[in-house]
Amino acid sequence: MAGDVWHWQLEAMHVVSRVRSDLRARIAHPSVSSSSTEDARDGLLLVFEELASNALRHGGGDVRALVVASPAGWLLDLSDEAPERPPVPAVDRDPSLGGMGLHLVAQLSVDYGWERRPGRKHVWSRLPSGLEPIEGFSDQVPAPRAPEAPRD
């Protein structure tokens, strides 16, 4: 399954759980499960759910999910029709009030970011397979960035 590209339309919040189940089934396939750890697969599902729900809650319009599988892990891209609304992590908020999803994405991702394209915002994450050494694993809190701003 390495090299596979999977994509879904997310019309509403209730669709997220169905798509998450489909993604879980795809990554349970022996060709994926034998080349990744259970923790890595769980991380992919968790980041998918966080980014998908954010895209539906804070973006809207035509929400699309894309996963690209590779031997090193996965590229996850969620896009919506609100390029003027960048992802903004919660700051100084009691975690019990929610809004900590972007912090979680940062902790589980090898790399992450967002960009504007004509009429769309893309929020993406590269997630490890769990079997290969990780370079530059992020423990940083994501900061809002303009598309032209340099990465740290």
From TrEMBL:
Residues 130-152 are annotated as: Disordered. The keyword Nucleotide-binding applies. Residues 35-124 form the Histidine kinase/HSP90-like ATPase domain. It comes from the Bacteria. It holds the Pfam family HATPase_c_2. GO terms for molecular function: ATP binding. Keywords: ATP-binding, Kinase, Nucleotide-binding, Serine/threonine-protein kinase, Transferase. This is ATP-binding protein. It comes from Geodermatophilus maliterrae. The lineage of its organism: Bacteria, Bacillati, Actinomycetota, Actinomycetes, Geodermatophilales.
